[in-house]
Amino acid sequence: MTTIQVHVPVVEDAPAAPVDLASRVGRDVVGGRLVLIDNGKPKARDLLAHLGDALAERLSLDHVELVSKSSAAFPVEDAHADEIAARADLVVTGLGDCGACSACSLQDALLLERRGVPSTVLITDVFVAHVARFAANLGSPGYHHLVVPHPAATKSDDRLRALARASVDAAVEQLRGVPALLPAS
After folding, report:
1. Of 19, 36, 47, 146, which shows the fewest CB atoms inside 10 Å?
2. If DSSP codes are grouped into helix, strand and coil, which group holds residue 137?
3. CA separation (Å) from 102 to 43, 65, 128?
4. How do residues 26-59 score in pLDDT, each as one tens digit?
5. Residues 6+ away with beta carbon under 8 Å from 100
6. What is the DSSP string of 14-49?
7. Helix or strand or coil: residue 94?
8. Residue 153 — φ and ψ, nearest 5°?
9. What is the residue-wise DSSP string for 107-130?
10. What 8-state DSSP symbol labels residue 150?
């Protein structure tokens, strides 16, 4: 009888150092600057733009900037995160509608949090558990996120606008309030 040896490529790493989230207490963003980080996924730019419009109206923001990443499969580079942090009071990243892009959009938000900018990540509902696990792995168990129904890529512009408007209350709470940490999954 032949013996087959199976190797499982799992590495037991030490837990990540906790991420210090940007302070939301006492932060006045009236007249502030919102940066939306579009990862290039289909309809991400449209959905983020609608969310940016709704947040600008709700928070009386003076400036909303939509920036594009070179790839949904990688987080923003440190130098780019530094540039964004220098010109942003608030950041929303997205769209997480697959495994890698959800993880990278989450990592983008945490990179900005580390730089003192309140941030959140926009994902579709089927990736909530994935993002929760990845947040814990990155040192931010229970990190908040905005959720829209999957798939976003097939939604009409009117539906995307409605989803953005329906997400505004949660976005305001996540960006302005004490971050609501979710139970770790």
Report:
1. 19
2. helix
3. 15, 21, 9
4. 677 889 999 999 999 999 999 999 999 999 999 9
5. 72, 73
6. PPPPPP-PPP-TT---TT-EEEEEE---TTHHHHHH
7. strand
8. -65, -20
9. HHHHHHHHTT--EEEEEEGGGHHH
10. S
Domain 33-176 has CATH 3.20.20.210: no
Average pLDDT (114-143) is: 96
Sign of the CA dihedral 44, 49, 55, 58?
Answer: negative
Pair 121, 145: CB distance under 8 Å? yes
Mean pLDDT computed over 160-170: 97
Question: Which pLDDT score, from 0 to 100, does residue 4 have?
Answer: 84
Q: Is the pLDDT of residue 145 over 50?
A: yes
Query: What is the reported pLDDT for 180?
Result: 47
Q: Can you give the residue ranges of every domain in the chain?
A: 33-176
> Model confidence over 72-128: pLDDT tens digits?
999 999 999 999 999 999 999 999 999 899 999 999 999 999 999 999 999 999 999
Contact 64, 53 (CB under 8 A): yes
Question: How many whole angstroms separate alpha carbon 146 and alpha carbon 169?
Answer: 10
Judge contact between 67 and 37, C-beta under 8 A: yes
Distance CA 95, CA 120 (A): 11
